[in-house]
């Protein structure tokens, strides 16, 4: 489980028992005789500096909201390089994971000596394990061109490589806090998760040394985006787009792959299966080998059959649905984001540390929302929170950008009647309507 100190493991069981009668395990004691108050918690889909804007004139409602997200402490040099791509960047969520997904896909193509997705896919896990360690595109590409096995390490992939399933064996999570309608970096805590022993030990196919001389007949490698430019997850798009653009720029500055510059074809997933399928179809027609995305786990689930049927690679920087680990993909699906089985433990710990006694978990109805909701519930129950002190609610996210906003008024009344003192909101930009509804129902949000 995830804890900031080892002693947390021993203390959670005791804390859960005490919670039945008191909030003494939390940092703050409940205020007797005051109006009902709730603490707000969020996840990677809404713990962004851009999120308060979704509440418009009521942005101050998020102050004090805590949440977790997959996040490695990013070097200032990497942030500076990202800002050279997008000077207006205010968030970095999944920027490193997007950067690494693009770089790993390109390195795999170089090692395979081919733009064929099936050949590239066989190299992807091996790029991150059991070779000559390298940490930047130029060095790694030079080794790959020489036919050298490599072990890529970079901003999001620091401790261990991929598992046999094509996802990180280890991860880093951050606990974030809104303060003054912005994430307060001074309150951010990082914690590691996963085990290095879970990394794959299988040997990939022998790398192909790039032949010297004329490469006029070599087709350029084409990488396509399937990122949330529009839709409910659009608030997370800028850092992901910056990560992809930076990777392509640095790869091509280092000579590209297979003797030619790598081509990037932009594409929107729209946080919508219909939009995403249309983008996938266009990428197939444009001879894209590696598709970077989708942004949301539910969108990837919807389009993966189309991607697999076309024999392409789907490589997501932000899918966290644990169920995707074992999805039927014919070896063509990968991700740089860790599964929610790890994030659920981190969230449960954050909520318990505050001494919460009655907890509601609100989730958008898709594989990401309901999957993480179930994981957090299980972790809270393992820690001793009984079923009568837990309530699960869900809402249907808008079908597209033209759909009316989420109406959570009924759910908000249920939360008020339940007497919750903690509400975890699992969603994207649309989840701001949950917070608005709580305030409109008379639930006092604790800051």
Question: Can you walk me through this structure?
Answer:
The chain has two domains: 7-64 and 341-445, 3-Layer(aba) Sandwich (Rossmann fold); 76-176 and 220-338, Response regulator (Rossmann fold, 3-Layer(aba) Sandwich). The chain is α/β, with parallel strands linked by helices and 447 residues long. The chain has twelve helices and 16 strands. Residues 1-34 have low confidence and may be disordered.
Give the secondary structure arrangement, pairings included.
Elements: H1 7-19, E1 37-42, E2 66-70, H2 76-85, H3 95-112, H4 117-127, E3 132-134, H5 137-145, E4 150-152, E5 170-179, E6 182-183, E7 189-194, E8 222-226, H6 237-253, E9 263-265, H7 273-285, E10 290-293, H8 297-309, E11 313-316, E12 333-335, H9 340-353, E13 359-364, H10 367-382, E14 390-395, H11 409-418, E15 422-426, H12 432-440, E16 444-445
Parallel strand pairs: 1-2, 1-15, 1-16, 3-4, 8-9, 8-10, 10-11, 11-12, 13-14, 13-15
Antiparallel strand pairs: 2-5, 5-6, 5-7
**Helix content estimate:** 25-40%
Q: Give the biggest beta sheet.
A: 9 strands, mixed
Q: Tell me, what is the CATH class of the largest domain?
A: Alpha Beta
Overall structural domain count: 2
